[in-house]
Amino acid sequence: MKIRLDRTVCDGFGLCAKQAPGYFSLDDWGYACLIGDGTVAEKDHDAVMRALMDCPVHAITELGERTPQVGHTYCASAEDPARNLKTESNEAQWGFTR
């Protein structure tokens, strides 16, 4: 996992340094700084993800592609959704006219 910190977005809440002090520090004004190149060790993944999720201004982002953990079925129904579409041929059914 690799992360990026956008210092221009940071408002200095300091939650990242609290959650993952090995990856974030605070400068003299209280704004976050990334320690290292953003590469996160597997053992620190949970702490860094907590810092990422807790950031109120979303200044921390995860780089790279995430692979889905579970396969998703986006259309669970076998019914054709276009069948219920409002068209000119069924406008009386839907209660609209031109």
TrEMBL record:
InterPro entries: Fe-S_cluster_ET. Signal peptide: none annotated. The keyword Lyase does not apply. GO terms for molecular function: 3 iron, 4 sulfur cluster binding; metal ion binding. Its cofactor is [3Fe-4S] cluster. The keyword RNA-binding does not apply. Pfam families: Fer4_15 (PF13459). Keywords: 3Fe-4S, Electron transport, Iron, Iron-sulfur, Metal-binding, Transport. This is Ferredoxin-1. It comes from Mycobacterium basiliense. The gene is suaB_2.
